[in-house]
Amino acid sequence: MTSLRNTIGKSVLLAATMLATGSLARAGQAPGGLSAPDIPISHHDRVYAAEQFSNTVSVTDPADNKLLGVIRLGDPQPSNFSPLYKGQVLVHGMGFSPDHKTLAVVSIGSNSVTFIDTATNAVKHITYVGRSPHEAFFTPDGKEVWVTVRGENYISVIDPGSFEEKTRITTPNGPGMQIFSPDGKYGYICSSFNPETDVVSVAEHKIIATVKQESPFCPNIAATPDGSQVWFTLKDVGRTQVFNAKPPFNPIKTIDTGPITNHVNFAHTAQGTFAYVTIGGLNEVKVFRTDDFSQVATIPVGDLPHGVWPSGDGTRVYVGLENADALAVIDTTTNKVVANVPIGQAPQAIAYVPNAAPNPDDRENLQALGVAGQVAHLALMPKDGTKDGKTATSVSLFDQGLIQVLQASVTGLQPKQKYVLALADHGDGSGKLQPLAAFMTNPAGSAIVNAAGPIRQIVDRSAAPARRYLVIASGDAAMPGDAVQIEAQ
């Protein structure tokens, strides 16, 4: 009898353990539903990053955080200036099919969506859409690909079988990104030019509701795996908004996240569901609970964090560092960076695709990083030497042969004011200023500024005595004022 009781007791305990384990094992990660099974990290998984200045897609094995190579979709400058050029330019957005077999990669400069076979890394097709598309994603049933045509006023709906546009969904000018409810019923489309996020019936391709954005510039949007919330970022004012993913689609919360708030995504763990928000101007990722919206962590990650995506089991979150040419790997248990992977130039969108590689040893159609891995870094600080707790302006010089693309993640300036990035004769910002790029800061006193030229050769320490110095001055290119930020020494 005692033996029988022990046997029954052990069976009950085993059943309870299996039930608990099963519960944890069925805690799906974004963009899937909460009931989807978790997929443990393995060598069959891949992390992809869209890299806009090297025009590459990097491919990383998350099991050992090793770069396997890049898929080269286009050439760097100045090759891509030719009127006969056929490659892709400004590789930027990314989505993947529900069966994990196809990537859809958006290139802004060439108005294209490149469909890539994840098993072979081969390009299956290129579909050209309207002006300056931004992001693409598959509907949860895999029957359509929605592309935000940000330079115009519509969503291009593509048939992934024929790769042809089947219809368009008209929106306000500048749709920024779209994502879907896990059940596939709703599409959520935020705007980069208008203070309005649209909710669309996927079945009918019709706008059924609108949500007010607190600013016009939303670059990124994501839905929680339980289908209850939608989060979107406001890059110009440094905020993140949350609204009800179901009718009446009412606003729930606005969070002040910080200058150059870029992307948001979710990881579901045994402790709950957490939002990971990349803050480019602070070089941090901030982590929030989705139940009470409390901030639980601030994670320093490196220069200009941009895209973010969870692993298939929620144990890791991957962040593209736009001004560091790297992929930061965050352990969601400790919320600390546990690895950095060198990748291509200026990573934008990130996608973690479980079971993307049937043969994990296959390197077919991958190339070495090459020139895409060459970059120089500078930092600018306030001229008066006061830091006031503010992060330095980070500057990256991405090699493109003899010239570089310069990108500055500018922070710490006055909001909505004119400034100019320039070369100065002296390190203190004095002497003649040669303007490189004029810009206006956003309401958070930040900006992303680009220029091109043989700049590294001029600002490198070995260039003395002909060396010049990067500065930020008030005013505009016609009449630059005094330097307000100078190179950190």
TrEMBL record:
InterPro entries this protein is in?
Answer: Host-pathogen_enzymatic-act (IPR051200), N2O_reductase_N (IPR011045), WD40/YVTN_repeat-like_dom_sf (IPR015943), YVTN_b-propeller_repeat (IPR011964)
Q: Which domain of life is it from?
A: Bacteria
Record bears the keyword Signal: yes
List the SUPFAM superfamilies hit by this protein, alphabetically. Answer: Nitrous oxide reductase, N-terminal domain
Keywords in alphabetical order, please: Signal
Give the signal peptide as a residue range, or say none if absent.
1-25
Q: What is this protein called?
A: YncE family protein
